[in-house]
Write a structure and sequence with these properties.
7 helices, four-stranded mixed β-sheet, disordered N terminus, two-stranded antiparallel ribbon, 236 residues
Length: 236
């Protein structure tokens, strides 16, 4: 007689890895930065040009964040220059990403601790997609793209994000991206980024103290909320 099979009682996977720097998936690449003020900074649809701008090898980028927080904060500021979003937490980033995917009919939603219907809808700053190009001659070009999946009315006649961003990925250098932003994507030039007044987070480092829908959470605070939502806690 065969012996009974052993069964393992498994709870939910350990959430929100705050050591992450780079991840790859079928949707593309994500780059994470972890500011000392809380939250997490992630650019929309990172491309090879973005990796070059950050001094990373696109084929072999760093997979973990810096241990020195001052150096990590400096990296956060560099990442914001690409039009990255400063999310309230890694959980909020995941929630808004799932709202987007459901609205677009992509994939099967995973079982999660945070019920989407109980979450605040995405804000304009969370949903607006922004791309920046830094030409070798100085200044910066900025284009903004509309999204219609979140139910937040756009205030301007912006570019359709889905098709146009696919074209922008074809840029091979930062100067080539700048040319595309200027010629094809109604890019606006700023000699000084301090003059920017859009929905992006370019100048957020000097002014941001609160999140978009709540406080800026540290990873341990995000995990604590997650465990409470599940009703499970990690063993000491």
């Amino acid at each position: 007689m065969d012996s009974p099979r052993k069964r393992l009682a498994c709870g939910p996977a350990y959430p929100y890895n705050s050591r992450l720097r780079t991840t790859f998936s079928v949707n593309g690449a994500d780059i994470y930065a972890w500011p000392s003020r809380g939250g997490v900074i992630i650019p929309e649809d990172a491309e090879a040009v973005d990796f070059d701008f950050l001094g990373f090898d696109p084929l072999n980028p760093p997979m973990e964040r810096l241990d020195n927080q001052s150096a990590e904060d400096a990296f956060c500021q560099r990442l914001l220059l690409l039009g990255a979003k400063w999310w309230d937490s890694q959980a909020r980033y995941s929630i808004v990403s799932e709202i987007r995917d459901r609205a677009q009919g992509k994939g099967n939603p995973p079982r999660r601790a945070f019920k989407l219907e109980k979450q605040p809808p995405p804000t304009m700053r969370e949903k607006r997609i922004i791309k920046a190009g830094w030409p070798s001659t100085g200044g910066v070009w900025v284009s903004e793209f509309e999204t219609t999946w979140a139910g937040v009315d756009e205030e301007e006649d912006l570019l359709d994000w889905d098709e146009e961003l696919r074209r922008l990925r074809m840029a091979r250098t930062m100067d080539e991206r700048c040319d595309m932003l200027r010629e094809r994507f109604r890019g606006r030039f700023y000699a000084d980024l301090k003059d920017y007044r859009g929905y992006g987070f370019f100048n957020a480092w000097e002014e941001k103290e609160l999140g978009e829908v709540g406080p800026l959470l540290y990873p341990n605070e995000t995990r604590e909320i997650w465990w409470k939502a599940w009703g499970h806690y990690p063993r000491e």
